[in-house]
Design goal:
Elements lengths: L1 H8 L2 E9 L2 E12 L3 H9 L1 H7 L3 E3 L6 E4 L4 E8 L3 E5 L9 E9 L5 E9 L3 H7 L2 H18 L6 H8 L2 H20 L4 H16 L2
Antiparallel strand pairs: 1-2, 2-8, 3-4, 4-5, 5-6, 6-7, 7-8
Helix pairs in contact: 1-7, 4-8, 5-7, 7-8
Amino acid sequence: MGDFVDEINRMHREVGLRQVETGEARTMLLRRTYDADIADVWDAVTSPERISRWFLPVSGEFELGGRYQLEGNAGGEILECAEPTRLRVSWLYGPDPGFSEVEVRLTADGEDRTVLELEHVAVVPDEFWGQFGPGAAGVGWDLGLVGLAVHLAGGELSSEGTEAWEATPEGKECATRSGEAWGAAYAASGADPEVVAATTTATIAAYTGS
């Protein structure tokens, strides 16, 4: 368990607000450093074959303006692609997804290390945010980036394997630590402590079934 919990602890998280065309959006930022060169990390987050080995199977047209679809999850349009440093896509899920974008930014840290920033910007319904806060999406991103760390180290977590692992005590412990960390980031953004406590509890319960 220690290795996966360590992966959760390696991530930096920030929660904020941003104005977009359709209103006020919530922002969730994750940052962490991987022991891999920038070309390898870029390939891992943009190659359909590699994405399926650490996240989910993906199909579509993988070019600027093309559309993609993750199996059983989000889909959207490739809005910006500047190899090997920046990828921005719309991130749409459900019948009325509203505004939602994900941007991945990579920065070389020497020859064999890469800093990855993932920022999710979305207009979230007040009732949903009020119930779960940033953890609803944030815990999912944390677990995804743990899968990326395993992949870059030479391992593999299929979507089926990841789903099974998330139901184990180890997986539930990671989701709990992640939920608590997003709660801390939410508190650091100035959120009311009682709201932070309630949304953190609800998020952890949703991910662990407790």
